[in-house]
What does this fold into?
Amino acid sequence: MKVVEHAETVYFSVKGQVVIPRRLRREFDIEEGTRATVVGTPEGILLKPVTAATIRRLRGILKRKPGGKPFAEEWAEHKREEMELEEAKYARHTGGSR
It folds into this structure.
């Protein structure tokens, strides 16, 4: 998936709702009823859609091989790698590190 960073302005409704721009909905396969996780980060609010592609990726993570690492250990490693990628992306975007 090719993600082009381009800031767009959105507005929150009285209920805290926001419309995700069509370009991003298409890029991330977000359809009506798509669920998302919402996380508060030092940079702001991170919204991660839970799409069919995300579910397929997680199913691959959940499969256990005989003699393989316990799920909790493998998940912690996955989350560390994900955080490192996010931090590297942030550093590239801001021109420095945290």
Summary: The longest helix spans residues 71-94. Strands lie at 35-41, 44-50. The chain is about 40% helix and 15% strand.
